[in-house]
Amino acid sequence: MVTYKKAIVGIGVFLIFVALFLGATWKSGNRAQTLFDGYYAQAKTDVPYIEIVSHDYQRGFWASTDTATLRLAPGYFGDALPKDVIDQFEVVLKSKVHHGPFLGAHGFGAAFIQSEAKFADQENEKLLQVFGDKPPSITQSTKVGFDGSSRSQYESAAARYSDDVFSVSWEGFRGTSEATPNANQVTYRFSVPTLEFQASEPKEGTFTLRFSDVAVAGDAKKIFKTAPSAYLSSGTVTIDKTFIVDEEFALRLDQLSYALETPVENQFLSILGTLNVKNIVSEKNTSPSDQPTGSALANRMLPISNLSVAWSIKPLNIAVVEEVVGLYNEFMSSSDRLAESDVKDTVIKTMEKFLPDHPTVSLNRFSVELPDGKVEADASATLADEAGASFELGVTGNLLMPPKVAQLFPPVMPLVMNGYFKQEEDKLLTAFEYKNGTLRLNGKELK
Predict the structure, then answer these.
(1) pLDDT of residue 130
(2) Could you say which DSSP state residue 292 is in?
């Protein structure tokens, strides 16, 4: 009798577990559909340059499928992109949504989503012409947690695009991103082994850009109340080697890095940027092993080492930045936004909003090592609206260079001879100031 009762209890517990599991699976399915429907509904208003041609969500119990066809919005680009071209490049985004809570090899969570984005007509003649035999596709896999957070992985195969003007090729890319609930904060990292841009028909004045081992990483946060889809971003870009090549010369930049930070303090934010390049060398033609060549000036200035630049813009009132974001969105949604008067009015309105806080643009550090010595500089420029004069610009700074470097630039030497630079040991230096339309070097007005 006791054994029978235990069996009944065991079966009851099992049935309860099954009911909870099935209920959780159904709820996860509901949540996944709400997520997709909400995403595309928001995209219609927040991403005006993308048109959602169609969207279909097929709901299942254990899994669902979501299919959307997207293209660039014809009305957004005006005459810049003809409609027949836009139609040829429709993209289909197809997703397989596995409902939680049990996601097989992916553990537990609300959902696991496998997506692929590819062109709608893979056999389109124009598509094959610009991409070759294999038009590119992008795959994405995303695990959604019970709290709404997510982690995604991205991958694309190697591809090449070419038209009558230029071509771009890349050796595929990989990436990851993580998002907090409601995507209020997103961190990301992407890498590309090689990336190359060049003219389709190289001729005088054209050049090739080639990058190797490109990595992009950063984070983005939502901080604007009236622009919920806008993010404030910080991040870094690193490139192991960069080649700039034409028929006569090649420049190679080693270990280039660029970082952008956007710290927030109270109601203000700052924008801080840094650029560093370990070496810049001149090479003959396209071979990294060839001897340096080029003009006499280039040969005197190269190789360059330890180029370092740091700049900042601050303070920027967050409320004003939010207004400017709204102004930008309004400008971009205007059908005649490319008119010169609209551009001018938008720039003026933007600047006028920031003037009361007297934002300062600073070159906090510039330093570079040349064969003839090290050059250093710093500067700051402030926009003011004092005395009713909009856009009154004030600039101050310092410049330091060796005499041999100054000799490379003929206009500098007369300034040295007329006392606009001071010489201290083996350095030439000057403090410069621009105010009320007057430029002073070393305290002397430049006439």
Answers:
(1) 56
(2) P
How long is the chain?
447
Q: What are the pLDDT digits (tens) for 240-279?
A: 999 888 777 788 899 999 999 999 888 888 999 999 999 9
Which tokens belong to 204? 């005088």
Cis peptide before 303 (omega within 30 of 0): yes
Q: Which residues contact 156 (CB under 8 A, 6 or more apart)?
A: 136, 137, 138, 139, 170, 172, 173
DSSP notation for 112-171: EEEEEEEES-TT-HHHHHHHTTS--EEEEEEEE-TTS-EEEEEEE--EEEE-SSEEEEE-
Long-range contacts of 201-207 (CB under 8 A, 24+ apart): 202/246, 202/247, 204/247, 206/246, 207/244, 207/245, 207/246
**Considering only CA atoms, which of 207, 192, 186 is closest in space to residue 142?**
186
Dihedral of alpha carbons 401, 404, 408, 413, sign:
positive
Strands (E), 46-136: 50-58, 63-72, 91-99, 111-119
Q: Which amino acid is at 412?
A: V
CB 375 within 8 A of CB 401: yes
Q: What is the pLDDT of residues 208-226, one digit of tens each?
A: 889 999 999 999 988 877 7
Radius of gyration of the chain measured on its C-alpha atoms = 29
Q: How many Å apart are CA 260 and CA 311, to the nearest integer?
A: 10
Nearest to 331 by CA among 351, 350, 356, 359: 350
Distance CA 361, CA 363 (A): 7
Residue with tokens 């109601």: 267
Alpha-carbon distance of 196 to 193, in angstroms, equals 10
How far CA 155 is from CA of 136, 177, 189, 191, 273, in Å, comes to 11, 12, 12, 10, 29
